[in-house]
Amino acid sequence: MTHPNNSYFSNKVQEIHADLNGKITQSSNTIIELSVGQNLFDVHPFFESLKDELTDGSTNSLAFPCVQLDIINSDVICDITIKKEIGFLAILLFDYSSHYEHLHDAAQEKKKAMLNEQAYELTTKYSEEKRAYFEYIQDRIDAKIVQKLQDIVSDIEKLQKTNLDEKQTALLKKIKDNSTLLHQKSIQLKDDVRNDLN
């Protein structure tokens, strides 16, 4: 059987005793290095923020999860329990740095996955809206331009079969050529929209 001082937890837990004024009387120094006689409330702003609460005589016990302590050469994330005993404070620091780091990494991965999912949904929605828009434009080109130009070309062909003088025939040929060119361009535009859609 392993001696308790050699266990996994022995280097993950630090016990600190201080008098009610904050003067440290004992520290196991397994996580952060503290000196006997040093004032707990001067060690870190976290402890300083509790000074009034711990010295007024009302609080018996406090617990704080996930406290980041950056003291001298130590930067750790601890769960902290403070218990007021008769005449002194007992503070336990539980080093959960690696645990909280893994939680942080897991939270980052989850956030990244959620952002990727949102990006996918937005891309899909954008693609659907783009498709609907291009189909609408394609239908409008077909109904409003291509069909009308086909009607004009058909009417011109009917006019060509009538008795026209030379000037009228030349004008009708010019109209037909321009209409045919516009018809071809409108079909090309419709095809371009279809290509953009695909």
From TrEMBL:
For this entry, the protein name equals: Uncharacterized protein
Native organism is Ulvibacter litoralis
